[in-house]
Amino acid sequence: MPTTPSVEPTDHAALPWLRVDKRLPTPAYLQLRDQIADAIGRGALPSGHALPSERDLAAGLGLSRMTVRRAFHELEQDELVEPRHGSGTYVRARRLEQTIDRVTGFTDEARHLGFRPGSRLLEIGSVAAEAEVAEALRCRVGDAVLRIARLRTADDAPLSLQHAYLRPSLAALTADELERHGSLYRALELRFGVVPQRARQTIGARLPTRRERLLLEICAHDPVLALERTTFDPDDAPFEFVRSAYRTDRYRIALDLRAPDRG
Q1: pLDDT tens per residue, range 93-128
Q2: For the structural domain made of 12-91, what CATH number should be given?
Q3: What is the pTM of this model?
Q4: How far apart are alpha carbons 119 and 149 in whole angstroms?
Q5: Which of 30, 85, 145, 194 could covalently link to 188 via disulfide, CB atoms 3.0 to 4.6 Å apart?
Q6: In sequence order, which residues have a C-beta less than 8 Å from that of residue 80 and are 6 or more positions away?
Q7: How far is it, in rounded angstroms, from Cα 90 to Cα 82?
């Protein structure tokens, strides 16, 4: 299964604005790379768009295939395109980069980074707390907690599969409230007066489950970032435990590090 929406490859005539002037001191491969990179940056070549083949571009521009291949390699190194075996070269999807320095919900974080957030509710209902969930939420094993499963998207592309567990006192939250407010944290604040104060998050990597492959539209060998987060209210009581699986080609985490105080 492809990792991004596919567009059938086109010939050079589909990109008539490409021009390479061999009289210029700038090497031909850099001219080609810069023009394609600029088109990707301004959205003229959207995510998932197929570039012309090396042969078609070389013939259309009067270049060697080695020159075109070098330009494509530079674009791949800059994480702007990705080759797919037996299919061609495609524009990569932008990555959502989350900076770990504050507690922010997915919706607000995606909007802050310039993405259009989306969410598909897959499941909401009461379940018996398993041992790990009970420990995180400081309740008893078997207590009724609310489980919410959602497929999160950025610019309409699948990004993560999340399972959130809410402590027993919040189990009355309804699907209608979640859908109406759009944000889980907003819904919890309006219904229960609960707001996040801090969170503890761990990050790992693993291969995806079959369900994750289907929903995230990835292959069996594509790793996912596995995140677990416990969120606390102003009284330092845990109210949410979340397990998430993120596509590694569309999401990365940045840590905001500072030098130690020398005072």
Answers
A1: 766 666 555 566 666 666 666 677 888 999 999 999
A2: 1.10.10.10
A3: 0.66
A4: 10
A5: 194
A6: 36, 37, 40, 91, 92
A7: 5
